[in-house]
Design a protein that fits this description.
By secondary structure, the chain is of the alpha+beta class. The protein contains three helices and four strands. Pfam families: DUF1330.
Length: 95
Amino acid sequence: MPALWIAHVTVTDADAYGKYAELAGPAIAKHGGEFIARGGKFVQLEGKERPRNVVAKFASVEAAVDCYNSPEYQEALSHAKGASERELMVVETTA
């Protein structure tokens, strides 16, 4: 089943986070991820608001988790740590 990688982000260091974004996009694409939403308009209805929201579609939960654990993504993530507050989850879709 396909899966969605959903990230909610508050950037605290734009320069360092820019390096993350530069590396994360190709890492996600390399693992079959396709961006559906990247920082567009949103309406927060419940919970903690984060100004940046990203959704990518993967072939499966396993593919998304493999991407997250890949050396390429972990290198990107090293630039996001300390440069953002974020939540990231992978959710299996129903179709």
